[in-house]
Amino acid sequence: MTALPHPQRHSREAIVPAYDLYGEDKAPRREDFFHAETIAVRSRRYDWEIAPHIHASLTQMLFVARGEVRLHLAGEDRREVGPLLVCAPSGIVHGFGFSPDVEGFVVTASQDFVDSLTRQDALGQHLRTPAILRPDAALTARLEALGTALVEAEQDRFAPNGQRLHHALAEAWLRTTLAAGAPLDAARSTLAERFRVMVEATYREHRPIEHYAQRLHCTVRTLSRQTQVSFGMTPLQIINRRLLFEARRLLRFTNAGCSEVAAELGFDDPSYFSRFYKRMTGRAPGLEKRRENV
Which one of 82, 165, 186, 227 counts the least CB within 10 Å of its CB? Predict the structure, then answer.
């Protein structure tokens, strides 16, 4: 096994950088976006070291078919060898160090795609949960075959038929990862991740941060420090972000009006929901609804 590169120093107190794709600061407008590439294509440029970072509106699934990876995910660090799947949802701090002989793919999905998945769709929960999974030999072979076809389709994704093929292959690849089974013991038992799971179940109730800290048997200060390390956000930012994502999903992909969305998300006053949405996005929810209908 080829040795991993020496890890770069990373201060947990430092501000975690946010990227579009790693190393790219400016994001083009994307609707229902997928991107796929081999691990080597991007990591080779950075001497096989992808420093801890977040994606504000992209979710990534990393597939290591062969080779070794040193990974940082949601505040946890570990070394693993392939085959391995790593899910890094949007807003989750993650970073990797690869051995130069690594083989595998990184498949990226936009938040619009994740938001379009209903609560009943297993893929939606799968892509919203940071996890490390161990595919068996048969699943590894399927992911390699589909991944190869997906990366080839990447070259023609801007052609009308090519875009549809690329979309279909990307979603098929992501849905295939559902067969990987239960996650390994990582990125699921930290204080920050337990908070995130609680928020997922109760964000419509608009509970104060003190409620979560009490339930988690910690202080608000400790909770804030842990969420900053794992997710690069304060507890309130995590709650508001989850509310925003659900609001965008309901406005864009359902027939619900703005007042109905406000009620669904636990806002007693539709005008307060409008102010919340405008503060978070810079535009009124009614404009979001009309944009989808254009």
Answer: 165
pTM: 0.70
Distance, in Å, from the CA atom of 266 to the CA atom of 169, rounded to the nearest integer, reads 37
Q: 11 vs 69, 75, 209, 221, 229, CA distance in Å? A: 20, 12, 26, 19, 10
Q: How far apart are CA 62 and CA 92, in angstroms?
A: 14
Burial of residue 151, with CB atoms counted within 10 A of its CB: 0-12 exposed, 13-18 middle, 19 or more buried:
middle
User: Tens digit of pLDDT for each residue in 158-188?
Assistant: 777 888 899 999 999 999 999 997 676 544 5
| Residue 83, preceding peptide bond in cis (omega within 30° of 0) | yes
What angle is formed at CA 283 by the lines to CA 277 and CA 286, rounded to 5 degrees?
80
Question: Assign residue 38 a region: left if phi > 0, alpha if psi is -120 to 50, beta otherwise?
Answer: beta
